[in-house]
């Protein structure tokens, strides 16, 4: 009975039904007019869409366990770890950095616009570093390891990536004056959209969303971000607003003639959870150990993935340059 109760709680917890059930049981539908109530009502959205995605794939005989294997084991593993490690990084950053904010904002619509632009900038910085600093890539690469795109990928993260991301994003937002309650609203919107843009082709074949593809970052843009094609590598770092990708030249639309290949560029055991979760860390430790000098050991940690002490670099920047040179040639 205890096992069944635990299983029930895990299922309900995964689908985020608790908040919605609470509203229904207490007949407190006025809560839907509040930010907390909206969050509880929308909580089951992504998990339910994921279930629909799986059912459609099963119906059309396109479902294989390999497509969800890494995401499933990552979710289970992170759930286990979360029972022992709980890091309130957002709260810590707010408490520590708020006294040093350059100015204070309020909970208004115009400061919301300002806050979202700042948030996207902070997200761009965290995400860019996650691809350009090898230590941070070790935390982020798990999210890129799946060779398919579907909603389960939104749950595929190394357990320390969240705290690392929140240190950067929250600190930048707080120092630039974003009001904490406003920040939580922005994080809720961003988290919901950030999950939705992983929607797979079993539900949405063409994910450009029409005219919106020119205004915001759509699921199509995020599919490009998860691609290992040289044309697509290290692009579309923002989450909803594309302004910073435009500003820094990293915006890339999906090309009809360039089919997306998902995954990471190094040889990897297909569908292997341990390789997806610990593979990059293992390779980094190996490179650091074998590096001939102390300087090289440090550089392996902080230089981009693909950097090599011999000078035979295979970074994304070099791979992309070789690709464009070959196209021109």
TrEMBL record:
Its main localization is membrane
Asked whether the keyword Oxidoreductase is assigned, the reply is: yes
Topology relative to the lipid bilayer, per the entry, is: Multi-pass membrane protein
Q: Tell me which PANTHER family the record gives.
A: ALKYLGLYCEROL MONOOXYGENASE, STEROL DESATURASE-RELATED PROTEIN
- Pfam families from the xrefs? FA_hydroxylase (PF04116)
Q: Where in the cell is it found?
A: Endomembrane system
Keyword field: Lipid metabolism, Membrane, Oxidoreductase, Transmembrane, Transmembrane helix
Highest taxon in the source lineage: Bacteria
Domain Fatty acid hydroxylase, residue spans = 113-250
This chain's protein is named Sterol desaturase/sphingolipid hydroxylase (Fatty acid hydroxylase superfamily)
Instruction: Provide the transmembrane region boundaries.
Output: 41-59, 80-103, 109-129
Q: Which GO terms describe its biological process?
A: lipid biosynthetic process; membrane lipid metabolic process
Q: Give the GO cellular component terms, alphabetically.
A: endomembrane system; membrane
Molecular function (Gene Ontology), one example? glyceryl-ether monooxygenase activity
Species source reads Arcicella rosea
């Amino acid at each position: 009975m205890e096992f069944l109760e635990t299983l029930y709680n895990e299922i309900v917890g995964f689908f985020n039904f608790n908040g919605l059930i609470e509203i229904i049981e207490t007949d407190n539908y006025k809560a839907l007019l509040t930010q907390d109530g909206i969050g509880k009502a929308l909580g089951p959205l992504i998990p339910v869409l994921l279930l629909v995605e799986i059912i459609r794939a099963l119906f059309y005989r396109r479902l294989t366990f390999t497509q969800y294997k890494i995401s499933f084991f990552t979710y289970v593993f992170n759930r286990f770890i979360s029972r022992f490690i709980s890091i309130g990084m957002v709260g810590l950053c707010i408490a520590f950095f708020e006294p040093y904010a350059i100015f204070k904002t309020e909970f208004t619509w115009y400061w919301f616009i300002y806050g979202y632009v700042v948030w996207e900038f902070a997200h761009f910085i965290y995400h860019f570093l996650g691809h350009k600093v090898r230590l941070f890539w070790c935390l982020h690469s798990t999210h890129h390891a799946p060779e398919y795109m579907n909603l389960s990928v939104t749950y595929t993260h190394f357990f320390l990536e969240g705290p690392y991301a929140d240190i950067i994003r929250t600190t930048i937002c707080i120092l630039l004056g974003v009001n904490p309650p406003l920040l939580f609203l922005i994080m809720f919107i961003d988290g919901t959209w950030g999950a939705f843009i992983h929607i797979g082709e079993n539900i949405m074949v063409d994910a450009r969303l029409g005219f919106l593809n020119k205004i915001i970052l759509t699921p199509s843009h995020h599919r490009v971000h998860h691609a290992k094609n040289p044309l697509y590598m290290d692009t579309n770092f923002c989450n909803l607003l594309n302004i910073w990708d435009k500003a820094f030249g990293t915006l890339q639309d999906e090309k009809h003639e360039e089919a997306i290949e998902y995954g990471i560029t190094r040889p990897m055991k297909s569908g292997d959870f341990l390789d997806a979760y610990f593979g990059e860390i293992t390779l980094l430790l190996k490179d650091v150990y074998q590096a001939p000098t102390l300087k090289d050991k440090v550089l392996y940690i902080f230089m981009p993935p693909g950097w090599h002490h011999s000078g035979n670099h295979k970074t994304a920047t070099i791979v992309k340059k070789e690709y464009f040179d070959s196209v021109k040639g």
